[in-house]
Amino acid sequence: MDPGILCFHHCDHKVFCTIIPEQCPVCKQKLDRYDYKLLPFRVPYPFVKASQHPRAIVMKPTQGDFLNDYYNSQDLHIGVTNSHGCVIEFNEEGIWGVDPVTKKWSNCDNSAHWDQCLMLEQFDELWNEIWDSVLLKISSSPLWEAHRYNEERHNCFTFVLAFLRALECGELSEKAQDPKLFCKQYVVPRTSAAGKYISLYRQLKRQSYFIQSQ
Which residues belong to any copy of the MKRN2 opposite strand protein-like N-terminal domain (predicted)? Predict the structure, then answer.
């Protein structure tokens, strides 16, 4: 899903595009004869496919996707991937990803909705056993039954913070004690960086180039 935004430096300008042109859109000089100060590079894509990132905290827009639908005022939805990359999430329908009867992982039929998300944090394989154990235990609690969901007070964010506190993993668990502090340290930096990429992507949907003075 990476649109492949490219950047090159020329005549004291940064030029963003999806295809390197034959000539500079600013000075019109042919680029194949120009000795670049900095070789063209691909702008890092900030989003990930949740199923490819086990043991992670992931976030996406509640509706739609980041590139085409998201604006700062819109709500975000947060979830946790287990050691298999399945997203465990809490919403108005209760817990997804865990069978309420067997208390085991259920099919990951929600994974397609998490193909363009931000990853807030990921743990290495050494955490597999304890991560899944704590996640199953938390998810199986009656606290996350559908009728308990409240958009303002008991929601997906409440669920993820409860999991992180129970995980007892140091700084991340400590920050999860305070929702505002957690947002400041883990959510805001990621969404701010993503916002710049989104803005650039939308500029390039309207025009072939986006030019910045250096």
Answer: 3-31
